[in-house]
Amino acid sequence: MSNKKQDQLKNVEKDNDEKAMTTNNGVKISEDENTLTVGERGPSLLEDFHFREKIMHFDHERIPERVVHARGFGAHGEFQVYKDLSEYTSADFLTHPEKTTPVFVRFSTVQGSKGSPDTVRDVRGFATKFYTDEGIFDLVGNDIPVFFIQDAIKFPDLIHAVKPEPHNEMPQGGTAHDTFYDFFAQNPESTHTTVWAMSDRGIPKSFRQIEGFGIHTFRLVNSEGGSYFVKFHWKPLQGLEGLVWDEAQMLHGKDVDFHRKDLYESIEKGDYPEWELGLQIIRPEQEFDFDFDILDPTKIWPEDQVPVQRVGKMTLNRNVTNVFDETEQAAFHPGHIVPGIDFSNDPLLQGRLFSYTDTQITRLGGPNFNQIPINRPVNEVHNNQRDAMHQMNVNKGQVAYHKNALNNNDPHTTPKEEGGYEHYQEKVEGRKIQKRSESFKDYYSQAKLYLNSLTQPEFDHTVDGFSFEIGMCDSIMVKQNAVNQLNKVDRTLAERVAKNVGVEVPEVNEEVNSDEKDSKLSMEALDIPLAGHSVAVAVNGDISADTLKSYAKTFTENKLNYAFVGQHPKDISEEFGITETFDTAHPTLFDSLIVLSDGSDILPPVEEFAELTYKHNKPLVVNQAASQGLAGAKLNLEAPGVFVSDDPQTIVQAFERKRYWDR
Ligand code: HDE
């Protein structure tokens, strides 16, 4: 990134310009460097009210981090539906193509604490708040379409197993430890989601390149009362991409903020990420037509069976002004729904409906969290709720109860026909029982469907993912139990992981006997546009500004981000000088590399750049002079995705594939 650009990024909104500093009570402050003392070397005085207020406020700056999804990053944007969907739903924001609805999205990891690295192997949260004219709709989803458990009562168990182990608080930000794999082996419902997490889906390249899934089955309800089962999807127009695990691990150290920086900078540059809202719809009469239960959150509705209709588009186009005030204080809740949307009987969803408001009471300090600016709806709020901690409103009037005559019975309720929310009148009958439905008990078929649908490199990465994670467990018993579980899904996976982690291959092959595939499960199923990718140009020796300029022109024309990386920052005031040094840049931070040499000896950091780019299967272009100098490096210049060329355009050709797995 050029220095000019960096200066622009610092151009954030401010509200203190030319303002006098005051206490929180509005008293102007004359001194903010020294506390009040008796003489220059004497004792400090407690009567220094400004000092006491400043320290008191600072002492309480932190609030409890989220118990899960603590590490997150958010942005504002807008959503617009393509066409009127009133056939399915009465929701205002889904039936008015002329309207844009403001949204706020928070992406997150699940396991790690607030300061953990972005690039860990984990599920990503993808929570969207729609500020519709009829109130707030929160789509609180993940980047993997299924979940680890089927019943909410198991959530504390899952999270206790996933989180750092209590006796030593390790590991941070990952599931590669005994308690998680013990849970995995003892709770087979977690198999499907874990297989996804061990694939490339668990290490996304950026937030811009993840899918989003509401996971649960919801209902859409139209104005005639007709109801449809629905699953919500977000399809990224930036394509889907993952990291290589070795690269992800390096990134933990090189740039702990890798994902948030990518999103923040894309938005600052005006390169706004976009997702299409997708709907999978099942009519009520089709409820039992499938070989899975549509209420089971560990199951997908394979897209080849139930196609996704793309019905609208979301664009993220504004970074937050203050991360704490907005992103940290955002309170999402799957129970925030609007007329035209309703719940299904998915037992995981039903449990979440309790949890999300409950958690905010501890995290945001009381029941008035909806009054925090980021959580306020855009339409007016009127009810008889009063008082409580952190009340921000001054409620007027004598009457705060329903029904009343003193205030004409206002605020009044609204019938359904005029926009009042009415729950879908589902007929329910049955005994009170505590029992998992028999229809939820196939834990392995869809895990197999997923593995069958991967390309060979994606399958190999999944083997590597499991081998790393199970290999990191200390207990031989846990390792063996985990491999026994894999043996119930896929024999090849079990055999290869068993070998890698040093346990027995189970005697009997219990794998799912199916070679069924779904065409939308491989990450390579979505096109990956070139725009938004990045190129490092490693400059070895003296390369003219004109040459750099011709490369920069190609990059700009193709909407590629770039940096000229050299030994010393020289000509930094020039647009076409070295923009980063080998001390500050690293090959893992870029999607590709061009090595430009003047024919002098290849510098050790340039060689390292080339070797790591090669190792991580990324496009690599070297000019003729560099190709001779790199002859002794650990890479094969004849391998796929390596180009020897002095033509700036070659990088476009090299990006035809984003990774060369066959290298
Ligand atoms: Fe969450 N989850 N969850 N979860 N979840 C929270 O709410 C919970 C589940 C998800 O960016 C918490 O405000 C239970 C599924 C996201 O602020 C908490 C169960 C899915 C986020 C909570 C689940 C999610 C959360 C923690 C089992 C995908 C971050 C802080 C019934 C569909 C939202 C908070 C943000 C956050 C509970 C299962 C996604 C404790 C009890 C399934 C994206 O309320």
Layout of strands and helices, then pairs:
Layout: H1 3-9, H2 49-59, E1 72-81, E2 101-109, E3 124-132, E4 135-142, H3 155-162, H4 178-186, H5 191-198, E5 212-213, E6 218-221, E7 227-236, H6 245-254, H7 258-269, E8 274-282, E9 309-319, H8 324-328, E10 341-343, H9 347-363, H10 445-453, H11 456-471, H12 476-486, H13 491-501, E11 534-540, H14 545-557, E12 561-566, E13 580-581, E14 592-597, H15 604-615, E15 620-622, H16 624-629, E16 642-644, H17 650-654
Parallel strand pairs: 11-12, 11-14, 12-13, 14-15, 15-16
Antiparallel strand pairs: 1-2, 1-9, 2-3, 3-4, 5-7, 6-7, 6-10, 7-8, 8-9
Helix pairs in contact: 3-4, 4-12, 5-10, 5-11, 11-13, 12-13
The structure holds CIS-heme D hydroxychlorin gamma-spirolactone 17R, 18S.
